[in-house]
Amino acid sequence: MYQSLGELCRKAEEEKKSFWEVVQADDCRERQIPEKTSFAQMKAMYLAMKEADASYDPKLYSRSGLTGRDGGKMQRYVDREETICGPFLGRVMEKALKMGESNACMKRIVAAPTAGACGVVPAVLLAMQETAGYSDEEMTQALYVAAGIGGVIASRAFISGAQGGCQAEVGSASSMAAGAAAFLRGADASAIAHGAAMAMKNLLGLVCDPVAGLVEVPCVKRNVAGAVVALAAADMALAGIRSKIPPDEVIDAMRSVGQDMPVCVRETGEGGLAATPSGERMKDYLTQG
Ligand code: SF4
Fold first, then answer.
1. pLDDT in tens, 121-138
2. 3 state DSSP class of 270
3. Is the peptide bond before 113 cis (omega within 30 degrees of 0)?
4. What is the pLDDT of residues 230-265, one digit of tens each?
């Protein structure tokens, strides 16, 4: 697994390969599998995301009752064509909510990179495919791009809220989605890495503060923020804008901010929104009965 986006970009340039091909070659080397097998497995992952989105149940509430039905609400709102952000971003938000709720309702999702942040990458990718008509093969390539970025973040920093706060979960997912979205629109390796960096920069410092320790509040709605930030970062990268801080240094900053974060905002459910009077009330209600 690559430990540096810079190294990954250099490899792509030296070997005149696309970002996704470098990630795929690395996967084949590491797991000793042929390209065909690796691609089939990545495609299956993408199709599982599609399936999870299609099988969203708009009537379902989570066991705690804290989450459910918002994906359906957003869908109806987007259908009425009243959104401020327009139909495309509306669909992205709808899909992010649906996937986050499906996770809270124990339905099958793809952790990308984690279950808590599972809505970000599919919301961006599925909405882009629906809008622009990319093939499943192109989407699989985009998923390699996302996986390559996630792999670097995991090996250079962390991808769990317990280790680095929500910047490590939703922030990493947003980075992955930004790179994948930029790739789909023709960005080269360097622009992909900068898109990923700009998404991460904008979510730096985000704490992990799940109410009652459940991956529901604020997690589901944070997936929306991660997806929207990803698209803004991808657009900046496609416009030729670059992160003033190099991508690998942005990831290092995320690691260092995460290490400095107090334990109460690292998935313990003891700080931030979890510690508000309403958060405490919800927790008491759920634990007492
Ligand atoms: S708040 Fe914590 S548990 Fe929820 S998505 Fe973010 S990192 Fe995961």
1. 999 999 999 999 999 999
2. coil
3. yes
4. 999 999 999 999 999 999 999 999 999 999 999 999
CA of 166 to the centre of ligand 1 (A): 5
Q: What is the CATH number of the domain that holds 148?
A: 1.10.4100
Sequence-separated (6 or more) residues with CB below 8 Å from residue 110: 45, 48, 49, 52, 118, 122
In the DSSP assignment, the letter for residue 266 is: B
165 in Cβ contact with 274 (< 8 Å): no
DSSP characters over 7-41: HHHHHHHHTT--HHHHHHHHHHHHHT--HHHHHHH
Measure CA 104 to chain center. Answer: 16
Residue 116 Cβ inside 6 Å of ligand 1? The answer reads yes
Chain centre distance of CA 247: 17
**Overall domain count for the chain:** 1
Name the residue range of residue 105's domain: 5-288
Is the shortest distance between the CB of 269 and ligand 1 below 6 Å?
no
Cβ–Cβ < 8 Å for 215, 34 = no
The type of residue at 273 is L
**Contact between 173 and 222 (Cβ < 8 Å):** no
d(CA 191, CA 131): 22
**Ligand 1 atom 2: residue of nearest CA:** 208
Q: Two tokens at 56?
A: 């969203």
Q: Kindly state the tokens that stand for 75.
A: 């869908």
> Could you tell me the distance, in angstroms and rounded to a whole number, from the CA of residue 58 to the centre of ligand 1?
23
Specify the pTM: 0.98
- Which of 273-279's residues contact partners 24+ apart within 8 Å by CB, and which partners? 273/209, 273/211, 273/217, 273/218, 274/209, 274/210, 274/211, 274/212, 274/213, 275/209, 279/209, 279/211, 279/212, 279/217
The answer to whether the CB of 219 is under 6 A from ligand 1 is yes
